Amino acid sequence: MNGLQPPQVTKKGINIPQNIKLYSRNSHKHIRLRMSGVDGKGLRTDSDAQLVLESVGFGGQVQIKSSSGKRYLCVAGHGAFIVKFFKNQSQAHIDHCIFIQGHYNGYTVYRTKVHKDWYLGIKNDGRLKSAKKTSITQRATHFIEI
């Protein structure tokens, strides 16, 4: 049977998960969602660097979660990126855990849904950059989906 299956279609759009690794242009490593937090120091073989990008609405709305599906990348109110644990997927559909996926100069960028000028960013040393200090033109916000 071809086409979309009913569980993939939601009221907000089409829900399609995609297994990816996010390679940072700045740190030259992969984003990891770990029990202790998130960073950009992952190697290609690191299991915590295996992520799931899942569409949750129209207009490029996505969630970034661990391959286990219980850890989600979210942004706190002060601009720090955090990992939140949710027992089921419906709990995770809060705006602080939703990003708008876009493109800039051939790279993928992730803008937070709650703040239109905050982006996911990784510093040269693999630490997260505060979302409040990012812009779409910075290398820190540029990623390649692998």
From TrEMBL:
Organism field: Exaiptasia diaphana
Similarity annotation: Belongs to the heparin-binding growth factors family.
Lineage: Eukaryota, Metazoa, Cnidaria, Anthozoa, Hexacorallia
GO molecular-function terms, A-Z: growth factor activity
Top-level division of the source organism's lineage: Eukaryota
Record InterPro entries: Fibroblast_GF_fam, IL1/FGF
Annotated protein name in UniProt: Fibroblast growth factor
Pfam assignment, any one: FGF
